[in-house]
Amino acid sequence: MPVDKPPHVLQEQAILNEHWPSHPTDFSTHEPGIKVRARLIWEKDGEEYVRGLARRWDSTHVYVEIDDRRRHALGVWLKPCDVYRNSSV
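^ thats the sequence. predicted structure below, dont judge the formating
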């Protein structure tokens, strides 16, 4: 007998352009962070630009905090080419 999933679990989607670093704990968290727009490619909804806050980064990875019901985690690791500084966010 299949178990029904709660509605919030059914809304979750993978982010196809997620780009994890080898050692994410090596990154320092920057306060207060930088307001950005992040390009995400959702597994079902496709490409979308969302507002976020870049908190950790180097030349090859950026961790962006986002608030989206489709994402169970607080943020996502992306390549820098998918993150755009945005002072109007």
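Residues 7-11 form the longest helix (5 residues).
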